Amino acid sequence: MTGNIFQSKSWSPYAAGIVIGLLQIPAFLLIETALGASSSYVTIGALLSGIWDGDLSGNSYLLKHAATTGKNWWQVALVLGIALGAFISMRLSGARRKAISPIWARTLGTSRPAARYALAFGAGFLMLFGARIADGCTSGHGLSGVAQLSIGSTVAVAAMFAGGIATALLVLRRI
Amino acid sequence: MSVFSAILIGILMGTVFGFALEKSRVFEPGMIVGQMQLRNFIMLKVFLTAVAVGALVLAVMTSMGWASLHPKGALYVADVIGGLILGAGIALAGACPGTVLAQIGAGYRDALFVLAGGIAGATFYGYLDPVLAPLLKTLDAGKITFADSFGLPYWFLAVLLAVLIGVVLFILEKVSPWRVEMGADVDGDLAP
């Protein structure tokens, strides 16, 4: 580990958690909303669907997320910023990652990239399909909902961990 | 606020968010799968710390009248079914909807497929919303919080939650120190 904290490869989970928790301040004060990530997928999906489905079939859910509002586009910008922030952090520390994490070859029992890519697509599909049913993900229900003591969010987070633990123990091999 | 300012603020906040996610290594597939296999607790540590800090800042901001809470509605059937599917997706993706972007930033190529699948899944839900919402988004208990149901002030329960989390994390750190959980290549891979 060399240099300052920006160049270090890892921070304590508590330091990172404090920074993430403090982000609720600008979210509530400036955008009047809580941290969240999964709605932005609908905004982008609706935008892309608009290419061949101009009026989004009159679907009010898609139209609501595709609307040019500050909240919709703030969240799209937030998730794009996550990629940028991680990229900057990685460049500063030099912790560049391989194309596929070495854990996948062991946990899936195959090192074929095509197998991992196919599973990754399916996993992403499940993840956001579930998040949109639950109306939130690890950020919206997890970080924000539990901090607000929302009962629905607490139930959703318990279900997320139950689904994740069951899948990781039953479907995936031990890493 | 204009959409332009909202986007600017979003990019700034996201950059800080992504920076912290990358430094904590919680975005690593090894951390997420390790957490779900109950052998690595970095995810829980980052998550609970952020929840505790979020609860404390919200306790202050709501008490001072600077902000009001925006809890989501309690839709128990949708919360449970959606949560279970989302959790299965998180384990197989080795990422959450937010952290997959950090994976892309850090160079994981399979994360691009998770992202594409995510956009497809979210859009698929959107088109099915008119059919699924009446089936799943039932048992609507409204935007209730534990503060409402216990009849206690939000700030009091928020501080209590933060203290409880502090105790849990103190014990967790004693049982499983974070420096050990990082692994040799700070990716949560603890293989010999």
From TrEMBL, chain A:
Pfam families noted in UniProt: Sulf_transp
Keyword ATP-binding set for record: no
Membrane-spanning intervals of the chain: 12-31, 73-93, 114-134, 146-172
Matches recorded under InterPro entries: Sulf_transp_TsuA/YedE
Keyword annotations of the record: Cell inner membrane, Cell membrane, Membrane, Transmembrane, Transmembrane helix, Transport
Domain of life: Bacteria
Presence of keyword S-adenosyl-L-methionine: no
Main location: membrane
The protein, known as: Uncharacterized protein
Organism: Tepidicaulis marinus
Automatic annotation (TrEMBL), chain B:
Cleaved signal peptide residues: none
Pfam families per record: Sulf_transp
Keywords: Membrane, Transmembrane, Transmembrane helix
Transmembrane segment boundaries: 6-21, 42-67, 73-96, 108-128, 152-172
Protein's name in the database: Conserved protein
Source species of the chain: Tepidicaulis marinus
